[in-house]
Amino acid sequence: MMNGVTEWLDDRLGISVIRDIASHKTVPAHRFTILYYLGGMTLFFFLVQVCTGVLLMLYYRPSAEEAFESVEFIMTTVPFGWLIRSVHSWSANLMVFFAFMHLVTVFFMKAYRAPRELTWVSGVLVLLLVMGFGFSGYLLPWNQLAFFATKVGTDIAGVVPGVGPWMVRFLRGGDRVSGATLSRFYGWHVAILPAITCVLLGMHLAMVQLKGMSVPPMAEAEAKTRTPMKFFPHFALRDLTGWVIALGCVAAIAALFPWELGDKADLFAPAYENIRPEWYFVFMFQTLKLVPGGSIFGIEYEAIPIVLFGLGAALLIAVPFLDRKNSKLFTPIGVAVLLFITGMTCWGYGTILPLLVMAFATSVLVLLGWFTRPSGKVLPMIVIALLAMHARAEECTNCHKDVSIAKDVHASVGLSCHDCHGDLHRKPARSEIPDFCGKCHSDAAYMKRFNPATRIDQVTEYWTSRHGQLLKQGDTKVAVCIDCHSFHDIRRISQQDSPVYKTHVAETCSRCHSDEYGRWKVSVHAKAVLEKGDVAAPTCNDCHGNHGATPPGVEAISFVCGRCHAREAELFRKSPKHAAWTKHNEMMNGMSCETCHAGGVRAKVTIKQFSECLTCHENHGVVRPTIALLGTLPDTPCAFCHEGVGPLALRVAEMPAKAEHFRQVRGQLLQLAEKQHLQGNDRFDWLVDQALHLPFHHAGAEKEFLRLFDKFRIGKTRYTYRDVATGKEVSVPVRSCATCHEESDSAGLANARAYLDATRGLTSMVGRADRILLAAHRGGVEVRKVRVELDGAIDSQIELETLVHTFGAPDVAAKQKEGLQHAEAALIAGQSSLDELAYRRKGLLVALGIIALVLAALVMKIRTL
Amino acid sequence: MEATTTVNRRTILNWFLGTSIGALLVSVIYPVMRYMTPPKITEAATNQIEAGEVNDPQLLERGYKIVRFGAEPVILVKAADNDFRAFSATCTHLDCIVGFQKEQTRIYCNCHGGCYDLQGRNVSGPPPRPLTPYKVNVVAKGSGPGLIVVSKA
Lengths: 865, 153
What we know:
The complex is a heterodimer of chains A (865) and B (153).
Chain A lengths: L1 H12 L1 H10 L1 E2 L9 H21 L9 H10 L4 H28 L8 H23 L4 H13 L7 H9 L6 H33 L8 H6 L3 E2 H26 L25 H9 L4 E2 L2 E2 L2 H20 L7 H20 L3 H15 L41 H4 L4 H5 L11 H9 L2 H5 L9 H7 L1 H7 L8 H5 L19 H6 L3 H8 L2 H8 L8 H5 L12 H6 L3 H9 L1 H13 L4 H4 L17 H4 L21 H4 L13 H20 L4 H14 L1 H4 L3 H10 L6 E5 L6 E5 L3 H4 L6 H32 L5 H19 L9 H53 L1
Helix pairs in contact in A: 3-5, 3-11, 4-5, 5-6, 5-11, 6-7, 6-9, 6-13, 11-40, 12-14, 14-15, 38-39, 38-40, 39-40
Chain B lengths: L1 H35 L11 E6 L3 H6 L1 E6 L2 E9 L2 E6 L10 E3 L4 E4 L4 E3 L5 E3 L8 E7 L7 E6 L1
Antiparallel strand pairs in B: 1-10, 2-3, 3-4, 4-9, 5-6, 6-7, 7-8, 9-10
């Protein structure tokens, strides 16, 4: 039966001819035979690309509006969509890597010699096409990274002399990267490039069959002594083994590290830090970065390396025609080029990993006896890029040798000594300085020459400041212009090395105001400015003013803070506390407590003036508000994440094993605390510290847990700062309701307790959902959509926290309910993400098991041949 | 004896190789088939829509209009003054969208000549079943013309 069908097909298709050819085809056997598999490996990844690419087309929509969403749909909703896309992305990179390896080995084995010139040419062209695939495919998910990489990549073409601008328009389908570019790249990626590649690859493969494998010159003698290997089945089965291993590897990588989705391209958002193209373009990208701006003979410097790269590609194609006499020169040139590419890639990434990869690949070759003879000398690399700044010689500096204004902003706009000092041949006195600088800086007509938008009221404002008023009274120890801005070395305030640049202001003020600086430095504002580099967060001059610096008055504080914390200030100003405090402040003017409270005061402390926000938050040491502010803390901080309140308790319960572990750890910690006789706030603070160092919280995720602690406002009841003047650590308790109010005797404290319970309930739900999402995300499950729900819950939580400023909080329950709904939705979706993760892991295990079986079968089969 | 063992070994080996490659193919084809099956997307259920005013010019002139009921097309026919009827506009024969012929007062499908009467019953041509009817109500809207509301029957 089977034979009948085979014969029938053979009559029509001539299968036996192919079988005949295959049975006669042999592969030369020598110590480099293994390198023949590299081409086949590249072909395998190409086939994977074709299959997964076709599958992706079923759901992908090539438009700026829908591209990102459709990829997100593939990653989150389509069954196994994440797998198909991840395999496509990973296999693309592996294909490029193996194509490079194939090229390099073919080059060094000199397999391009006659009669295989065209095989080489078609191969190099296919490699260039593959890079084109990589470049065009990178844009298709339409995410930020892709968008900027494409912007930069296409822009580079613009500097090519002559045709540059046309090329940019041709590549982008318009003047800028937009939806038109996306459609165009899609067309290239799925139709034009595949069509050309099929033809060239077909030729390449046909020529390989026609001319057979080339034997490298250094192995010719060996190949003559050994029997060639039969292509079928000997070589083919080994090839298949490699393919199955590759399939297993790519499946494992894709399942364990799914390709990221990123954020949707925003055409008006600033570029990410360290934006760079795919790794195989990095060496070109890095080279271009080294070229300085400017032009020579009307050609931009940038164009030079681009033209050189083009020339390099042309030379690469022409290698077989250049190396006709089997020249010895080509191996060292190849090594030099390889070193250049690897070196530039290392530089671009700031890591030596690319070098290690190359070293690994080379050591494999070394093991195969590649360097049996000296490989020639490595070409030295010459780097010339030194531009000397020529400072203008100043007459005055002939005597004032220690004065240099080379870096001063005034020098940079062409001013010199005389422009400030005139004929005055002495230092201005401190009391003269404001007017000395004001001579120009208050002169609108003069200043407009340099900057039409500049301010000219600094000196006027200065005289209204506390500094200015004291100076007028004859106190010359106060700050004048030069104390903050320096002199002869003045930078623009926008320059990072200026002493009044956002991140340096506090340090500059600290030269006189050291205690305030010590407190500010531990504040949430300082953290934002110094650690996160957030230049919108306040430093000294944002609250006090800069040239007109004065301390804000009591009645102005909620307006000062309210510039950023608008909602809090608004709620506070409407709250009963605000009205009562204002009244209290007015009454206390010239009175004492006893004037009203004849029978004694119930409060624990006497306050003469309530200074609005500062009453609870302090001024310079505004630490991030934590639950400690409320003053009615639960026994342990653990409760905030791991235990719900009331009926919620069940919903945040962990899996039984985890829950048991948690109970044990907490029990041990409490015992330890008991041994150290810790009670109340001390115990709470100690437990917060311990929690941050727990192995589970700590292992590899320390930052995550710090973030969660911060987010959910779990912090200690004290904070410490270093006093700059004495150098000593000062520990200050966080002000809380209990600072003033007696625990047993306050309606306000009961309010605070109810409020704390509401927050805690929500926090434990959000915390649980956040932990689950974190686990799912680390496993590579796309959780963007679920995050939206969680963000909703967190938004409600933030709003709930803000409501504390109403000091009565009628909306607390409604807000908590809203947050709980979001958190519950996130929790449910997070659970299914975790289930999905477990399913992926199981699937991978099964697939790898099957692959192992196939490999075992193949190895046994090969051994019986 | 020696020859039989070799043949046996070879057969078993081939069987092992074939089966494991088969299993590998299944483990590739299974996710691919699952991938190609489009995921179900739950649409928001529509129970009621507003289909415009009673003096809609299109309705007056042609005697009918097709309205969107969620993702479903629904045909709204003016049978007489203040007598509106609505049916699923999807022909029960082969999924075409039906129209209304005012002169013959019948709902007609251009694709294969299916005919329905104003009760939605399939009266001639190939349709196997009647059209699904929808409920129509006219609600007063202030002093203006009434509003037609179509809802699931």
